[in-house]
Design brief:
The protein is mainly beta. It has two domains: about 180 residues, Cathepsin D, subunit A, domain 1, CATH 2.40.70.10; about 100 residues, Acid Proteases (Cathepsin D, subunit A, domain 1, Beta Barrel), CATH 2.40.70. It is about 15% helix and about 40% strand. It is built from six helices and 25 strands. The strands form four sheets. Strands 5-6-11-7-10-9 form a six-stranded mixed beta barrel. The radius of gyration is 20 Å and the shape is globular. The two termini are about 25 Å apart. About 15% of the residues have low confidence. GO terms for molecular function: aspartic-type endopeptidase activity. This is Peptidase A1 domain-containing protein. InterPro entries: Aspartic_peptidase_A1, Aspartic_peptidase_AS, Aspartic_peptidase_N, PEPTIDASE_A1, Peptidase_aspartic_dom_sf.
Length: about 375
């Protein structure tokens, strides 16, 4: 299985998707460098929880039309959004997030489960002062218990769906595995309206994108690791386990575990320093181009489990596969056809990366959901 690594020429950091290993450190004359390993836990997505409760169709009806465009609005020309209210980050896509890790904040440490998201740059968790149901259902940060807490004084607002997530900016010690990051910027949410986060298995989000994407004008966690010389290499890497158990894999800060993958490693230049954005040459089914015919840009987003794209291209792709629209806004295929469905190939830097039907289809009860919406 090939390893996909994303970097930029002479870059300060890279991202790759791979497997992980154990905590490792090396000494130099000046610093103790470490590879930090965070176990990941896999859980049912909010989408699955809403479907089981019969609430998914209503959620899609209320929220989906804007979710993709507003989370990724910097990718589009500004004139597209003249009729829309400004928004830098949209959190609907977290309803499909299925992997989270543990981090601690403060002295003594308070532990939280967070989505490790390459599609955003900010780090936030619920505040003890937040009284919404979504906050009360999760771990809440108690700043008055931390001796190292620093109140930032600034406010932030993250737009999602029919409301806003609002809060205040702060600084404190953040601990990931055995590494402590001093004076790390993070947000304390004070208002989480709506039901989007009520059933979530995670408390907050830890963004891993570039600083230019930060709504809070904050230094992201990984950038602070590099500034404080806490990692051996300017690299972080994921292993995502798809077996369906709680062992979801690991995230490695500062290194690569070469024992947990095989095949060649492919390096793809980052085309813009906001998201982890790379050039995509085309999308093919059975050798025929069905999308991105003249080339396009793609974002590698660990906070979104579905593959998204322009509506017309996705509809064309669904038609090629024989998928039909479902009542909740998803496309459906008959599970009995799974073995006869074609593979889908994504051409990146003249290399075709192919997904089989088992990899791009999500089986749900007696139906299968195609992974491209």
């Amino acid at each position: 299985m090939p390893l996909y690594q994303f970097t930029e020429p002479r870059s300060r950091k890279t991202m790759q998707i791979l497997t992980f290993g154990k905590w490792q450190c090396q000494h130099s004359n000046l610093y103790l460098y470490c590879s930090i390993r965070i176990p990941l836990v896999q859980f049912n997505s909010i989408q699955t929880v809403l479907r089981k409760g019969g609430q998914l169709e209503q959620f899609w009806r209320n929220n989906v039309p804007e979710s993709f465009s507003q989370k990724y609005h910097p990718c589009f020309p500004s004139d597209i959004f003249l009729s829309m209210r400004t928004a830098k980050e949209k959190l609907h896509n977290y309803m499909n997030a299925q992997y989270y890790g543990k981090v601690s904040i403060g002295t003594p440490p308070q532990t939280f489960s967070v989505i490790l998201d390459t599609g955003s740059a900010d780090f936030w968790i619920p505040s003890k002062y937040c009284m919404n149901e979504a906050c009360l259902n999760h771990n809440q940060f108690e700043p008055f218990l931390s001796h190292s807490y620093q109140h930032g004084g600034r406010h932030f607002s993250l737009r999602y769906g029919t409301g806003h997530l609002m809060g205040i900016c702060s600084k404190d010690v953040v601990q990931i595995s055995n590494i402590s990051i001093e004076a790390q910027d993070f947000g304390e949410s004070l208002l989480e309206p709506g039901n989007t986060f009520v059933s979530a298995h995670f408390d907050g989000v830890l963004g891993l994108a570039y600083p230019n994407l930060s709504v809070m004008d904050a230094v992201p966690v990984f950038d602070n690791m590099m500034r404080q010389n806490l990692v051996e290499e300017p690299v972080f890497s994921f292993f995502l386990n798809r077996d369906g158990n709680e062992d979801g894999g690991e995230l490695i800060f500062g290194g690569i575990d070469h024992s947990l993958y095989y095949g060649p490693m492919y390096w793809i230049p980052v085309s813009q320093k906001m998201y982890w954005q790379i050039p995509l040459e085309n999308v093919k089914i059975q050798g025929q181009i069905v999308a991105c015919r003249n080339g396009c840009e793609a974002i590698v987003d660990s906070g979104t489990s579905l593959i998204t794209g322009p509506l017309l291209d996705i509809k064309k792709l669904q038609a090629k596969i024989g998928a039909v629209p479902g009542p909740a806004g998803e496309f459906l295929v008959d599970c009995r056809r799974l073995s006869s469905l074609p593979s889908i190939s994504f051409t990146i830097k003249q290399k075709e990366f192919t997904l089989t039907p088992k990899q791009y289809i999500i089986k749900v009860c007696i139906q299968a959901l195609i992974m491209l919406i």
